[in-house]
């Protein structure tokens, strides 16, 4: 592709309007997650506890903005001040849970439709990460850590509020805290936030901002499609295992285990020799 045409495409991607089409994809995928998280009890729960179902869905949809506002000391409910977004999210929630014969849910779970919606959600995820970094940079221009943190929670806030979202449905799962077992979207949001911070605050990246943004979009979409189509859920795992083995004590733990194992083997061997000798003495007697 011609470099100028590629740059023009990147500029168009940065100027994409998220409302309503990409917002629809975000709401659909999030509501599908909530419904699938209910497993076989989704129909019973949605009929018996519609308010709790709606609240948990809204919390997941707007989790990034709610959590980011709380961390930055801004009005928490400012994340839900847009009436159009609330109406859109509520309509999507109703169709996913209450459409006749589950027609909308089955359509959204149809693989080609789900792939398209997942790709669109990753586009809006990149936008949220970018906006979170930019917003945090205006408030704390010298704190890279805060920029990365806000970009991460804006991009994947639903995972960080998963415990609270389930609690609204009467389920307490403290082991689901995102910091204990970070999901791939959270790791990807951290990487994207770091890239945006480097691009904004340093001169290490000489490429135009539009190309950097477009590259992050491709990164998100590619690995999401790999997860949906190929089952590659976390490509960071091999690098994490290597890092932990080298820098987090894995090598030394293995060496100490091997040494202690040899020591135990030696002592047990000597004990067996002593037992053998004593048995021989008894036989002679």
UniProtKB/TrEMBL annotation:
It is found in: Endomembrane system. The chain crosses the membrane at residues 51-73, 85-105, 210-232. Residues 271-285 have a biased composition (Basic and acidic residues). Belongs to the TMEM38 family. One of its GO terms (cellular component) is endomembrane system. Residues 261-285 are annotated as: Disordered. This is Trimeric intracellular cation channel type A. Keywords: Ion channel, Ion transport, Membrane, Potassium, Potassium channel, Potassium transport, Transmembrane, Transmembrane helix, Transport. It comes from the Eukaryota. GO terms for molecular function: identical protein binding; potassium channel activity. PANTHER family: GH25683P, TRIMERIC INTRACELLULAR CATION CHANNEL. It comes from Strigamia maritima. The keyword Cytoplasm does not apply. It is a multi-pass membrane protein.
């Amino acid at each position: 592709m011609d470099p100028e045409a590629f740059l023009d495409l990147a500029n168009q991607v940065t100027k994409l309007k998220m409302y309503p089409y990409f917002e629809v994809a975000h709401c659909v995928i999030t509501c599908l997650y909530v419904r699938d998280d209910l497993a076989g009890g989704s129909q019973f729960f949605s009929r018996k506890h519609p308010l709790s179902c709606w609240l948990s869905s809204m919390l997941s949809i707007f989790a990034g903005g709610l959590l980011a506002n709380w961390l930055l000391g801004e009005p928490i409910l400012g994340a839900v001040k847009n009436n159009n977004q609330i109406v859109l999210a509520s309509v999507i929630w109703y169709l996913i849970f209450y459409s006749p014969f589950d027609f909308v849910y089955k359509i959204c779970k149809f693989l080609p439709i789900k792939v398209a919606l997942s790709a669109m959600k990753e586009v809006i995820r990149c936008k949220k990460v970018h906006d979170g970094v930019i917003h945090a940079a205006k408030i704390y221009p010298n704190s890279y850590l805060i920029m990365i943190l806000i970009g991460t929670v804006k991009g994947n806030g639903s995972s960080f509020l998963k415990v609270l979202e389930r609690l609204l449905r009467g389920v307490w799962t403290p082991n689901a805290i995102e910091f204990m077992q970070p999901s791939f979207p959270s790791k990807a949001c951290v990487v994207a936030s770091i890239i945006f911070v480097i691009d904004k605050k340093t001169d290490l990246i000489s490429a135009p901002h539009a190309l950097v943004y477009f590259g992050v979009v491709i990164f998100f979409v590619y690995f999401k499609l790999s997860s949906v189509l190929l089952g590659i859920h976390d490509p960071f795992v091999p690098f994490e295992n290597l890092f932990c083995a080298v820098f987090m004590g894995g090598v030394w733990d293995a060496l100490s285990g091997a040494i202690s194992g040899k020591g135990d083997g030696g002592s047990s061997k000597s004990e067996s020799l002593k037992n053998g000798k004593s048995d021989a003495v008894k036989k002679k007697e």
